[in-house]
Structure formats: C-alpha cells, structure tokens
Amino acid sequence: METTLRAVYLFLYVKDIATSRRFYEEVLGLPVLEEEARAVKYDAGEIILALNIAADFGVVLGDEPNKSQLIVFHVGHIDSTRAALEAKGIAFTGPTERYEIGATATFYDPDGHCLLLYELSEESLTWPSADKIREVLAGDSREHTLLRVLDQHKRASDTDGDPPILGRNKVLYIFNFVTDYQAAKDFYGTTLGLRILEEDTDVGVVKYDAGGILLATHLVETQTNAPRAEHLSVPRSSALVLWTPDIRTQYRTLEAAGLAFDTGLSDGEIGTIARFHDPNGHGFYLYEPSPAALSWPSGTKILRLAGQSGVR
C-alpha cells in the first residue's frame, strides 16, 4: 500500500527558544518563514524546520545528545562550510569523514539534535536513490514570490555581517536509527506505505521517498560510527509531520494497516493532527492543515511541498 503522505515539517523540541534561535539564525543562517513568541519556523528547502518549546508539548529533554536521529544538510563544499561554521564557534564531533557515499561532518545544536553536513560523491549519484536526490535538490518550493521576498529580506538584513552559512542549503535526509531492520521496514514501507528507493542490507539502511526529503532508517551497531542500541533509549526531541489531504480517511487506513496512534484526531486552529511513533519511538504527526493555516506563509509553502494546485 503506497500512500500520498509527504513530510512537510520537522518539529525540533528545545528548552530555550531564544538560545535556539540564535543558533539557527545567527550561526547557521536559516531564513525565518514564520515566528511566534514561543515557536519559529525556518525554510530548510523542501521541508520546514520548526522549533517548539519542549515544555509546551509535555516533552522532557534529556541532558545527553540525541544520537537516535540525523538531520542531514546537503552542502556543495564541505570543507569551506565546515570552516565557516567553526569560525562561528561550532565544535564538530570529529574529523570530516570521506568514504563511498561522500564526505560528512557532524555537530549538535544547543539541545543535542544531531546535524550532519553531507557532500555527495560521484558514486552516490549512480545509486537507485540518485534520481530522488536530484529531484529534491532541484525542487522549487522557495521560488514562490512571498517566500522569495522573505528570503531576500533576510539576506538584505545580513549585508552588514557575514553571509548565511546554511541559509540556502537544503535538508536532504532524515535518518532514524532502529534496532530491528525488518520491523522498521514493515512499519515504514508496509504500514505507512512509503516508497522504498534503495536498500543496503550490509549496513542495514533503507531509504524512503517522503516527498521533499529522503527518510532513511539505519540499523544500530552496523558501522563503527553508528549509534548503539542504548542510544535509542534517550527522550525523543523531534517529530516528523506528514501531510495528508484527507486525514480522517488516512487515519482509518493506517489503523486498518495496524498502526496504533498515540492520540486520536485533534482539531485546532492549525488543522487536524494525530500523533504516532515508530517501533523505536521516533515521533510522527499526521496532519491536515486548516484553511486558515494554509493562508499563512508556512501554509503557502506546504501547498507547494504537497504539489497542490491553486498556488499563485
């Protein structure tokens, strides 16, 4: 069963919104899409990164970094990007690693979310997932007039300082680490119905089409730099939001496929949501935006991410 689910948000739960905003705006240089007193949304390419105060959602953040998930930014030149971030005070977890997939370098945000810079190798662009990677990198969800004006305004405000480091880069992958390869594949591929793009059984990786990003599962303890099973016991500090045009039908379909939701359907100003998690506790929301939410800048972007008509 393939679905029309598409990732539109990655919620990152944080302890202090001001501290996190300084990191994502002044250090990384992500363009603000929308802001409120206790939340902020960033344009991260073909997905929206949203910071939410953890206490507002009943989320208790641990003191240890969250190694259960990787948020992967595509970069064209990893060495210069890393140097620019180090000049801003970013401490990377180790040297840049170079192997068949390309080059990677890892660091953490103030709340322990694991961020990774990724420069593609030529070999990786010959793999089955390459067409999807090219599609994501060529996506145009930032080209809507309103979004372009917002981005130009943000860049204009930075003219007296350093140019934004990751402001025009895209989140390409979300990697969720798992303890059971087949259980994860059954959940993501069969229950959620996400299309499998590529599998590598040697390292326990499956890559799925999640719309504007690639969502991948990675088995723990299969590589020297992969997390261990114990790292998946930390409190989860993020949730991936999957858009659907008809949440009630989708809810019933997923229930019939065996998905046990954490909550029932909940209606509010932003629309209708239902929370669930995968077998290893990675958080998700099913989401149908309200007409009011679709009139906001984030709603305009969601419509473009979802490939909906009627967007001016």
Please describe the structure with a list of short key phrases separated by commas or semicolons.
312 residues; alpha+beta; 2,3-Dihydroxybiphenyl 1,2-Dioxygenase, domain 1; eight-stranded mixed β-sheet; 7 helices; 16 strands; globular
The CATH superfamily is 2,3-Dihydroxybiphenyl 1,2-Dioxygenase, domain 1
Tally the structural domains: 1
Distance N to C terminus: 33 Å
Structural class: alpha+beta
CATH topology: 2,3-Dihydroxybiphenyl 1,2-Dioxygenase, domain 1
Brief write-up:
With 312 residues, the protein is an alpha+beta fold.
Could you describe the 3D structure shown?
- The protein is α+β, with helices and mostly antiparallel strands and 312 residues long.
- Helices cover 23% and strands 32% of the residues.
- It is built from seven helices and 16 strands.
- The chain has a single domain (6-305), classed as 2,3-Dihydroxybiphenyl 1,2-Dioxygenase, domain 1, CATH 3.10.180.
- It has helices spanning 17-27, 78-87, 130-137, 145-157, 181-191, 247-256, 297-305; strands spanning 6-14, 32-36, 39-43, 48-53, 66-74, 97-99, 102-108, 113-120, 171-178, 195-200, 205-209, 214-219, 238-243, 266-268, 271-277, 283-289.
- Mean pLDDT is 90; it is low at 155-159.
- A hairpin with a 2-residue loop joins strand 2 (32-36) and strand 3 (39-43).
- The strands form two sheets. Strands 2-3-4-1-13-16-15-14 form an eight-stranded mixed β-sheet. The protein has an eight-stranded mixed β-sheet with strand order 6-7-8-5-9-12-11-10.
- The longest helix has 13 residues, at 145-157.
